Amino acid sequence: MKQDLIVILDLGSAQNTVLARQIRSIGVYSEIHPHDITAKELKDFENVKGIILNGGENRMVNGQAVNIRPEIYELGYPIISIDYPQSKCETKFEQIPDQEALKKFVFEECQAQANWNMKNFIEDQVALIRQQVGDKKVLLALSGGVDSSVVAAMLIKAVGQQLVCVHVNHGLMRKNESESVVKVFRDELHANLIYVDASERFLGKLENISDPEQKRKIIGSEFIRVFEEEAKKLEGIDFLGQGTIYPDIIESGTKTAKMVKSHHNVGGLPEDLKFQLVEPLKQLFKDEVRACGVELGLPHDMVYRQPFPGPGLGVRCLGAITRERLEAVRESDAILREEFAKAGLDKKVWQYFTVVPDFKSVGMKNNARVFEYMVIVRAINTIDAMTASIEKVDWDVLEKITKRILAEVENVNRVCYDMSPKPPATIEFE
Ligand code: XMP
């Protein structure tokens, strides 16, 4: 089933994604395309029901006045223009454009059907994946993050045992994280899962490396190497599954979008691994990816987990990584997550974690002087991770977390709370 489509043409608006999400929220599928799309490209979509011209002030893109190709008007689709004055860009999205006017356009003028929902989406994608993959095999790097987990669940539904998942444990995962990937995907969803415990290899490579950028580079390149070694052991793989999502595409795809952050999924894979990509989530926003995961039967914790950097706890064990400090980060992180969940803060706070610096301070335990590490707790709220404010965590919750960390985590005698917003601090420490 092809779902009805409302096309948003980007004429320099900063609100394209807001509008696309708003249309999807009333049950109609919407995509954003550049202002200079051709009539043929539009017609090739087959299911276009209407077009919205979405302009910023004076319809400027990169300093140039733009318009759509005149031939688009001759296609006969209903077309409206929304040109937001820049001063209104901060307006909450329920107010722009007027919800009733939008519904009237979508349902009355365009006669679109409200048939955009996760059930239909999954059904469509399963059919498309089967058509693309045939009887060939698909390889997927399954990190356990939201996107790769949802892709895995989708591919299992579509092609079952033709999917080979590789989970690389780089030794920098949170407590029980790799175990839970194996439990959910191998034991419950019966995926063909290769589990690679590369902890020793990663920790060896990272020994005595204290520069944050170098640490990140080593973790990234070592990950690709391990994955590549596993891929080479396998026969007859033609496809590579990727957790690309819609923001990854529109951030580089439309004419006005600024490059925010380079996204590397399994990017950087060597060219001689000639895979075709399977990217079943590439039309979804993050919250839709989560809804898709729930619909596919993944556990709530896996689908609603907070963001976790690719280099894992490696960037939270500051300076040169040692086993004892890595353990302190892992154990304190587990305590923090447990206590935040008990206090209901896990649903309210965007990201929260612990960090262990590479210096010690003096303290007292059992009437004797100790010289041990400290744990820093950080809890932030943000919309897009570009700026962030700190969460004013209830004092009693902080006290409880502190008590537990001091009692349960070895080699730690001090707990601090990070009060710094972003900027000038970043969210992570390295
Ligand atoms: P910063 O520290 O730059 O972090 O303020 C912004 C957000 O990005 C996450 N982060 C990463 N995510 N790979 C990722 O997928 C990475 O290498 C990475 N580094 C930071 C960070 O946790 C925060 O949510």
Task: Please explain how this structure is put together.
- There is one protein chain.
- With 430 residues, this protein is an alpha/beta fold.
- It has helices spanning 16-25, 39-44, 99-109, 118-133, 146-159, 177-188, 199-206, 212-233, 246-253, 286-295, 300-303, 323-342, 395-408, and strands at residues 5-11, 29-34, 48-55, 60-61, 64-65, 79-83, 137-141, 163-169, 192-197, 237-241, 276-278, 351-355, 360-365, 368-381, 389-390, 412-417.
- The longest helix is centred in the middle third of the chain and has 22 residues, at 212-233.
- It starts with a strand and ends in a 13-residue tail after the last strand.
- Mean pLDDT is 91; it is low at 86-96 and 258-267.
- Residues 307, 309-311, 351, 385, 422, 426-428 line the site of xanthosine-5'-monophosphate.
Remind me, CATH topology of the largest domain? Rossmann fold
CATH superfamily of the largest domain: HUPs
Beta-strand proportion: 15-25%
Number of strands: 16
Strand order within the widest sheet?
9-8-7-10-11
Q: List the secondary-structure elements in sequence, H or E.
A: EHEHEEEEHHEHEHEHHEHEHHHEEEEHE
Number of helices: 13
What best-fitting shape do the alpha-carbon axes yield?
A: globular
* Euclidean distance between termini CA atoms: 46 Å
Task: Specify the biggest β-sheet.
Answer: 5 strands, parallel
Backbone structural class:
alpha/beta
CATH first level of the largest domain: Alpha Beta
Tell me the CATH architecture of the largest domain: 3-Layer(aba) Sandwich
Whole-number total of structural domains: 3
**Helix content percent band:** 25-40%
